[in-house]
Amino acid sequence: MRKIKDRIYWMGSVDWDCRLFDSLIPLPDGTSYNAYLIEGSEKTVLLDTVDPPMADELMAQLEGVAKIDYVVSQHAEQDHSGTIPRVLEKYPDAKLISTPKAKGMLIDLLKIPDEIFITVDDGETLSLGERPWKHSRV
Length: 138
Prior knowledge:
- By secondary structure, this protein is of the alpha/beta class.
- The protein is built from 4 helices and 13 strands.
- The protein is 21% helix and 30% strand.
- It starts with a strand and ends with a strand.
């Protein structure tokens, strides 16, 4: 876990051995999977997870995190969402935040139960206490 700013942490991993992205784009220096933990005064959110082969690294970084209220899936590709099932296993009370379209894909791909989801549209916010999280399509 690398501190970026007060109560904001990089929780990702670096895969030095990955040489091709989506079977198309060369990666001579490997790649990184970027997940972030944001601790609000009332709620804690994990933004994305990591590719499943790097799951143990993410889970080790989460070892000292007592509670996650929300896991945000920015999109359903494995390098962002592949470790969601393991995170939800560790934090069974967490809600999974996604767009309606991503929700359908995550249910199909990862067999995540419908009742865990909170869907958001562009511009919607979630309160973390004094820090809001705002969904925006980039």
